[in-house]
Amino acid sequence: MKNLKLVSAWFSLLLLTACSNKDLPKYNHLDSLRVLALLIDTPEVNPGDAVVITPWISDTNGAGRALTYTAAACLDPGISYGATPTCEGSASKVSIASGSAIAGLNAGNLYTGAVNTLAVTTPVTGIIFAAHRPIELYNGVAYIVTYTVSASDGTKVDSFRRIIVSDPSKVTKNANPTVTQILANGIEIAAYPGTAVNLQAVYGAGSAESYVAKKDDGSIGGLGTDVGLTESLTTTWFISSGATDFIRTIGDGITLFTPDSSTPAVSRFIAVTHDNRGGVGLKDYTL
Amino acid sequence: MKRLLSLLTLFFLSLSQSSFAASIDGVLLERGTKTPLSDVNVYILPHQLKATTDENGKFHFDSLPEGPFQWSIGAADYEKLERDDEIQNQNITRTLYLEKSSYLTFETTIVGKRDKQDVTNRSLEAKEFAQMPGSGGDPIKAVQNLPGVNRATGLSSQVIIQGSAPQDTRYTIDGHEVPIIFHFGGLSSVVLPEAIEHVDYLSAGFGPEYSRAIGGLVGVWTRDPKTDRLHGFGSVDIFNMGGMIEGPIGKESSFLIGARQSYIGAVFKQIAKKEKSFNLTVAPDFKDLTGEFQTRLSPHDTFKLVTVGSEDQLGFVLSEPVGSDPSIRGNFSDETDFFRIIPEWTHVHSDNATTRVSLGLGRDFVKVDVGDDFFNLKTYSLTSRAEHERKWDSLWTSTFGIDNRLTWANVDLKLPVFYNAGGVPNPLSSGALRELSVSSTYEDVGAYIKNQIKMGEDSRWTLLPNLRMDYFSETRQVLPAPRLAARYALNEYTSLKGATGIYYQPPTEQQANDQAGNPNLVAPKAYHFMVGLEKDFREGSSRGLVWTTGPFYRIYDHLVEASTQLVSKNGTLVPENFNNSGVGTSYGYESLIKADFAPYSLYMSYTLSRSTRNQPGQPDYVSQYDQTHNLNLMAAVDLSENWRIASRFRYVTGSPYTPVVGGIFDADNDTYIPVRGPYFSNRLEAFYQLDVRIDKKWIYNTWILSLYLDIQNLTNHKNVESVGYSYDYKVSQNTTGLPVLPTFGVKGEF
Question: What CATH number does domain A24-173 carry, 2.60.40.3880, 3.50.50.60, 3.40.50.960, 3.40.50.300?
Answer without folding.
Answer: 2.60.40.3880
